[in-house]
Design brief:
This is Luciferase-like monooxygenase. This protein is of the alpha/beta class and 346 residues long. It has a single domain (5-343), classed as TIM Barrel, CATH 3.20.20. The protein has helices spanning 24-41, 62-71, 90-103, 120-127, 137-148, 177-185, 200-210, 234-252, 272-281, 290-304, 318-336, and strands spanning 9-14, 45-48, 77-84, 108-113, 169-173, 189-191, 222-230, 285-288, 308-312. The longest helix is centred in the C-terminal third of the chain and has 19 residues, at 234-252.
Length: 346
């Protein structure tokens, strides 16, 4: 059965990737410029990740960046993709996100992940004496829901601001574990297929088969995150993609780097094993001109029946990244059979 692609929404995930020769300051300004750009193009939401101790990723404080992006835009939904909940207490998250939702009503999303977003040593430095972490993830989500509820007004511990606010919560995952949790809680599910593609289809199947309707969501809702690098030609897009491939190779080899400039060929940069590992991680990457993107995205939508595609474009040149999202928007108008601006979801 072919899904109704006319209702698929499209969004952006930003890691605040620091390009070589750049600074976090310039990176954040570029993130805001990108958000303003995609808002004009009619994208649905703009999410920011949480990573720590990574020289090439500046998004260690997503709630601060969310406020910066929301303050510089007017209609775009802004959220976390995600806040790594084991790194924080639910009350602090509720207060911080509640503050944002009070400043920018109806525009703030809360995506929650269970991974540390870093190495174990750094995770210990973040969490201090807090134990449990990943094991407490389901209970922490429910505690967050309690803090946001109006019914919590009689509790001795309250989230002010936060209490009584409608903040959509999304469960993030890169394996099947969180699929079961999102289904049991009746929450929307966002899968990190941009770097962990192996279990995407199994996770979506588990989520949909086990979904229980809740006060938050009546039917399953799936967000799939994918890499997108669009250019005028397939050859130009392949050239730009070498920055992403080098960046992911640095993750595979444990030698972190900032986002490097593109190269003419990867042949002299990686070996067969590194190439295989990176290409497996980037299996759901859409690289090419508009015709290639249109065909590949339609096939992906048909395969996954996703409700929303969230695109991440780690491109060295800021101008090329802006243009990539413009070309993607133009492509999506053909894939979805209607202007992207009409797909904005609440």
């Amino acid at each position: 059965m072919t899904p109704d692609t006319s209702s698929v929404a499209f969004s952006v995930l930003d890691l605040a990737a620091v390009a070589q020769g750049n600074t976090p300051n310039a990176t954040f300004h570029n993130s805001l410029a990108l958000a303003q750009h995609v808002e004009r193009l009619g994208y649905t939401r703009f999410w920011l990740s949480e990573h720590h101790n990574m020289i090439g990723v500046a998004s260690s404080a997503p709630t601060i960046l969310m406020g910066y992006i929301a303050g510089g835009t007017s209609t775009l939904r802004v959220g976390s993709g995600g806040i790594m909940l084991p790194n924080h207490t639910p009350l602090v998250v509720a207060e911080q996100v509640g503050t944002l939702a009070s400043l920018y009503p109806g525009r703030i999303d809360l995506g929650l992940g269970r991974a540390p977003g870093t190495d174990q040593l750094t995770a210990q430095a973040i969490r201090g004496g807090r134990f449990g972490g990943v094991q407490d993830f389901p209970q922490d989500i429910q505690q967050l829901q309690t803090y946001f509820s109006a019914a919590n007004s009689t509790s001795k511990v309250r989230a002010i601001p936060g209490e009584g606010l409608d903040v959509p919560i999304y469960v993030l995952g890169s394996s099947t574990d969180s699929a079961y949790l999102a289904a049991a809680l009746g929450l929307p599910y966002a899968f990190a297929s941009h770097f962990a593609p192996a279990q995407l289809l199994a996770a979506l199947n588990i989520y949909r088969q086990n979904f229980r309707p809740s006060a938050a969501l009546a039917q399953p809702y799936v967000v799939t995150c994918v890499n997108v690098i669009a250019a005028e030609t397939d050859a130009q897009a392949e050239y730009l993609s070498t920055s992403l491939k080098q960046f992911m190779m640095s993750v595979v080899t444990g030698q972190p780097t900032q986002l490097p400039p593109p190269v003419d060929s990867m042949r002299t940069i990686w070996g067969p094993m590194q190439q295989q590992a990176v290409e497996q991680m980037l299996a759901y990457s859409f690289i090419g001109g508009k015709a290639t993107l249109q065909a590949d995205l339609q096939e992906f939508i048909d395969l996954t029946q996703t409700n929303e595609i969230m695109a991440i474009s780690n491109i060295f040149s800021h101008e090329a990244r802006l243009y990539s999202y413009q070309l993607l928007a133009e492509t999506l108008q053909k894939v979805t059979r209607q202007p992207v601006a009409s797909l904005v979801a609440q």
